[in-house]
Amino acid sequence: MHTAFKLKSVTVAALLAAAAFLPLTARAGLFDDDEARKAILDIRSKIEALQRDVATKADKNSVLTLSDRNDNLQSQIAALRGQIEVLTNEITNAQQRQKDFYVDLDARLRKLEPQQVQVDGQTVAVGIPEQQAYDAALSQFKGGDYKGAANAFGDFIKRYPQSGYAASAQYWQGNSLYAQRDYKGAIAVQQNVVKNYPDNPKVADAMLNIASSQAELKDKAAAKKTLEQLIAKFPNTPAAQTGKDRLSSLK
User: Fold this and answer.
1) What b/e string do you get for 232-248 counting C-beta neighbours within 10 Å, with b at 16 or more?
2) Rounded to two decimals, what is the model's pTM?
3) Residues 6+ positions from 93 with CB-CB distance below 8 Å
4) How confident is the model over 161-179, as pLDDT tens digits?
């Protein structure tokens, strides 16, 4: 733009110089008519050439300016595209991390949700901590730690009184006490099983354990009565069959 302006200024100056020059030459009589016309034509030719040169340079300058601007814009567009790609990648990664987080959270929550399990022939809902506490207590009993098992089953019953494992927990607590020769304690616990869970499959075994505890306490009459009740209520159970064998030994 500055170059075109300068060239245009030069053109104007040339025209003014030519306009001033012609009258002076005419007045001085230095040229005749033909020479004057030739001089005018020559000046006009130079002016036209100068104008073409100015226009050409102006056009070139404009083209160069537009080209530079286009290159600059292309560079900016390329930079923006790069930023867009980076942001798009970050968004995609963030979405994937969020998805993984929710999948992991859902899996963790599902682990904490009560699970449907079979306990004594019934389907019950049991929470993970509840299941773990019961399994730990039973593992202690199987490992011969009867005192620890008795305490663990006692704690379980206090923490989960409505658990589907409640009847089994009390039954195994009674057996743990029996193994420690706490026969009175065993009788009390097993009687709770018989009273509170009359339809539970563990009742027959609880009655057999009560009779065994009574026999250990030398209360044969009580043991005999308990065995007779066991055989009458649950005649087709393995506990009843065992009760029959023991009953004959008490006579």
Assistant:
1) eebeebebbebbeebbe
2) 0.58
3) none
4) 999 999 999 999 999 999 9
